[in-house]
Amino acid sequence: MKSKLLTRGLKDKFPALHTNDKKRPDEIKVIAKFYYPYSSWTWYAIEGEPLTGADGKEEDFLMFGLVWGTDKHLANFRLSELESINIKGAKILRDTDFETGKYTLSEVREKRL
Questions:
Q1: Which CA distances in Å does 56 have to 35, 59, 83, 113?
Q2: Average pLDDT over residues 29-38
């Protein structure tokens, strides 16, 4: 059985894209953490919303947040992109122990949580 990176319940907790534009990093809550288990790459999602097709059905989910790989930067990333990564059978995982809204963007920028 395939584990879902994002459940409907978690998707519902994301503020819409650009909601945090005028907030300071210490006011922005991190909703979800994704990581690649065999490297230091980590994605901290702070905003997100569904991408729908012409028929109005959800086709993907676009997120925005801190991407910490070879450097740290804010970027958009799609759920489908995370789901497509598969290096020798290792896939991106969601940290299910990461508490939604417990940490701010400032805190995860300072150290990996």
A1: 30, 9, 22, 36
A2: 95
In the predicted structure, residue 70 carries a pLDDT above the cut 80: yes
The rounded distance, in Å, linking the Cα atoms of 95 and 92 is 10
Cα distance between residue 73 and residue 59, in whole Å: 26
For CA atoms 10, 59, 72, 25, the dihedral sign is negative
pTM of the model: 0.92
**Contact present, 3 and 92 (Cβ < 8 Å):** no
- Domain ranges across the chain: 30-99
Q: Which own/partner pairs from 5-12 qualify as long-range (CB within 8 Å, at least 24 positions apart)? A: 5/34, 5/79, 5/82, 5/83, 5/92, 5/93, 5/94, 6/32, 6/61, 6/79, 6/94, 10/100, 11/48, 11/50, 11/61
Provide CB contacts within 8 A for 60, sequence distance 6+.
50, 51, 78, 79, 80
